[in-house]
## 1
Amino acid sequence: MRYEKGRKDASRGRIIEVAANRFRGDGIAASGLATIMKDAGLTNGAFYPHFQSKAALVRETVAAALEDQSDQIREALAAGGLDMAIDAYLSTAHRDNPGQGCASAALLPEIAREPSETRQLYTERLLTLVRQVAAELPPRTRNPESVALGIFATLIGTLQMARAVDGTDLSGRILAAGASAARTLIQGDNEAASLGH
């Protein structure tokens, strides 16, 4: 039986959506194709007309997740600048919903073990996110891309740690400390620039 292109595209999109949630929530290695296909409401045999392998699915899923994150960052920056973006990233809602959140915070150790094609794609998409944030830094920031990289490293590490600890009080303190550290990176670079150092 043949299906129209629109239905095939819809099925492919559904697989990517389900896989993105599964991978971020449970991890890449722990997410089997059979479970992903079942969650997508499709048979196992329906996987291969869309993707050559699980690695190909991972690559497309990471790309889609980072594209979504780019959109969310753009919206937060437009609505309230870097402060709002930091607060949204280090919110308890983001902490408590890894399946819907940042692919980097959920998957970095696994992405590091993926084939070079996936790591290259991740690198390109990460740099796009970094440049988005760099463009929003104060005009006197001496090296905006480096500061933005530091902000991302701080945010991602903070979220990972806040998710890992036992107890919401400590987790909340970690989120607050990470937000303060990210803001210090922004202010510190500009203070140094204003002093001419």
Note: Helices lie at 5-26, 33-39, 54-89, 92-96, 103-111, 116-134, 144-164, 168-194.
## 2
Amino acid sequence: MQLLEIFGIAVALSVDAMVVALCWGAVQPRIKVSHVLKFSVVFGAFQALMPALGWLAGGALYSLVNAWDHWVAFGLLFFVAVSMIREAFEKDEDDGQCECRSMGSDIAWGKLAMLAVATSLDALAVGFSFAMVSMPIAGPAAIIGIVCALLTALAMLAAGVLSEKAARHSKKLSLLGAAVLLLIGLRILFEHGVF
């Protein structure tokens, strides 16, 4: 897998974290540097950890499924992409209100960690799919974590300038992320001679 593809996966996986950060920041009277660091470090760390955990689980099962590993990898990426598409269409766009209004002006570490886990579960499946195609995980996990941390920080900084209406673009970002994952899944099938 090429670096550009890994970067595409990282961006796709970061969409949910960006939306949460943008949403939280949009309802704050003032965003501090400590807020930006807190969100970006926690979200980035979990986005790096989850693919590594998925890869470890996939490695343990690899000998059982190595004859059809490319289909497993495609299936997982397809599942993540479809769930992103479904979530994009389930978002309530009628009032444009952020769901993060109840988080308060300073979010607790525990609540932030729960949000980070919730927004990084897709990365678990991606890590599992990496194991299915015998791809090392250290580099991709680091890239995914760093990209997520940077995009989360940018989303929070943008929230200080933009209004709550910016959160409405989450649907387009989710659809773009899903398309990236589907294209990578199809490329895996192509490389294994399915097409």
Note: Residues 33-65 form the longest helix (33 residues).
